[in-house]
Amino acid sequence: MSLTVFYRGSKVKFGIKLSRRRMLSLAGLAALGVLAVTKPWQAGSLDLDQARQNISKEQLALAAQEQAVQALKADTEKKLTAMTIYLGEMQSQLRRLDALGQRLASVAELDNGEFDFNEPPLLIMGGPEVAITEAPAVDARDVIERIEAMMGELSNKQKQLALLESVMMSHHISAESYIAGRPIEKGWLSSQYGVRKDPFNGNPAMHKGLDFASLEEGAGVFATGAGVVTWAGNRSGYGKLIEIDHGGGLKTRYGHSKELLVKEGDVVTRGQRIALIGSTGRSTGPHVHYEVLRNNKQIDPYKYVYRSAE
After folding, report:
1. Are 289 and 278 contacting, i.e. CB atoms less than 8 angstroms apart?
2. Which residue has the higher pLDDT, 102 or 114?
3. Does the pLDDT at position 67 exceed 50?
4. pTM attached to this predicted model
């Protein structure tokens, strides 16, 4: 290899001999120089990419945590809603039990403070004073389990009380089922049992009941004996009708009501308000069409209406 240099117009020529080994060494030095120049820029680029990746990971982690917090909040709200519903059901059950207990105490003629269902019980308590900080921690799951257990206990007590009511009422049903009295408090007998002139066409027709008229539409219609409601609804000609089975083959019917206050299957007592006086069906004005049936055949109710109750 030769190298020519011009110095002040003079030409100077040098001759350089490089072996293969020296050529490789020079190439290596040149490569190191290039790496030394480019390395700082590449290192800066790598640090920036790593920082961006770290920020992205943190953002994803924060988003996941936010979703977890939202899910926990929603789950807590659902549990609180469920607990509120449970408590409302318990309060409703307790009110029903109070009403049922009061009825049983009245029927049994019990005069004892233990059976006073109209007022909350007098709380007479005792025991050493303990700070609230010493109370055990409460788990939400334990609270829900206790509420469910209480609901089951209340349901069981309600069934027992209902059975007790049925047993107690059976001792009085024979006397209460005795049919007597009028189905209204105020009003007058406007149509007798038997053949009469039809009020719509004027032709003779058989009237199989008594009509008790009233100037006060919406006044009460009362059962004339205890029994089970076997019909509560519309029937052709009768309008809104109630039929009560009193046992022993006797039934009573109350027609043309404005509104029915009982339903099929209900057990009613004598004197209970079962409907409101109206003029539904084939009627010319507010009144009660009252029937008494023996073995499913209408008979004259007159003797039942004007006899005294046992």
Report:
1. no
2. 102
3. yes
4. 0.47
Cβ atoms of residues 276 and 262 within 8 Å: no
The pLDDT of residue 277 = 96
Rg (the chain; Cα; Å) = 48
Start-to-end CA span in the chain (Å): 147
